[in-house]
Amino acid sequence: MTAKIINGKEIAAKKRIEIGEEVKQLKAKVVIPGLAVILVGNNHASRTYVNIKQKACEELGMYSLLIEMPEETKEEELLAKIEELNGDPKIHGILVQLPLPKHIDEKKVIETIIPAKDVDGFHPINIGRMMTGQNAFLPCAPYGIMVLLEESGISVSGKNAVVVGRSNIVGKPIGQLLLNQNATVTYCHSKTKDLKLHTTQADILIVDVRIANFIKAEHIKEGAIVIDVGINRNEAGKLCGDVAFDEVSEKAGYITPVPKGVGPMTITMLMYNTLKSAKESLR
Ligand SMILES: Nc1nc2c(c(=O)[nH]1)N[C@@H](CN(C=O)c1ccc(C(=O)N[C@@H](CCC(=O)O)C(=O)O)cc1)CN2
């Protein structure tokens, strides 16, 4: 079997046209969706992602504000900036790019963003609402994965979904979103005793471990749907995922590539969440 490629870039482009149309309609009501992105320090990858976010805002006609703070920024300075943005009516979404420098408490930072502007969906209030199936901002990468599955005509209900990785921003929430749609979910992580025992049972396998080529053909079931969230560089410095794409795509039913898989959908769902926040500000 050769897997169908789930093209995240194409699906993201389709979704962005829909978002762009809604932005135009909102502008007719004199509301321009506004996103503030805070970048602390000099992480090279973070700067790339922030630039992609700004470009996406521009393309969709949204207002974007980039706040750059030096590596040595004090935690209270960052919290004060967030408080200021919480009260700024031009800003509908606030995002602090992660990871943060070690001396800053990530949890405190996330909890300082008001839930109504938490377009990353990381605030405990939004996570609690997601878990209980209420209206919430959903974390962008997991939300993007759910849209990729839906747009590929894949029904989740009743399927065995295995999540490898348990980060707060991808692993834990994607398991919850799959459960919300009636999948049977198993979480695997660094202490899982026999990884292959679990992954070979997966109808849907989600991988976010940040180790290049970690999942091989022997880890998957014939025809499985494989979603690769990892972003790594291989020995040649080329961007690659956590899944050994060439061998796994010979056995899987569907697979996402890296790049052009989950990444573009992460940005698209951020735009969607910012639009949602702007719409909700009219209520
Ligand atoms: N506050 C947040 N911080 C981080 C998040 C997040 O959702 N919110 N997620 C990741 C990084 N991330 C978004 O910030 C992100 C990573 C990758 C991509 C992407 O489009 N990747 C491209 C390749 C880009 C490249 O050339 O490197 C792809 O996969 O095609 C988008 C967003 C950690 N931090």
UniProtKB/TrEMBL annotation:
PROSITE patterns attached to this UniProt entry: THF_DHG_CYH_1, THF_DHG_CYH_2
Residue ranges annotated for the Tetrahydrofolate dehydrogenase/cyclohydrolase catalytic domain, each copy included: 6-120
Protein's pathway: One-carbon metabolism; tetrahydrofolate interconversion
Molecular functions per Gene Ontology: methenyltetrahydrofolate cyclohydrolase activity; methylenetetrahydrofolate dehydrogenase (NADP+) activity
Residues holding NADP(+): G165, R166, S167, I231
A GO biological process held by the record: L-histidine biosynthetic process
Gene behind this protein: folD
Pfam families: THF_DHG_CYH, THF_DHG_CYH_C
UniProt source species: Niallia endozanthoxylica
GO cellular component: cytosol
EC identifiers of the protein: 1.5.1.5, 3.5.4.9
Gene3D superfamilies found in the cross-reference section: Leucine Dehydrogenase, chain A, domain 1, NAD(P)-binding Rossmann-like Domain
Protein name: Bifunctional protein FolD
Family (UniProt): Belongs to the tetrahydrofolate dehydrogenase/cyclohydrolase family.
Function statement: Catalyzes the oxidation of 5,10-methylenetetrahydrofolate to 5,10-methenyltetrahydrofolate and then the hydrolysis of 5,10-methenyltetrahydrofolate to 10-formyltetrahydrofolate.
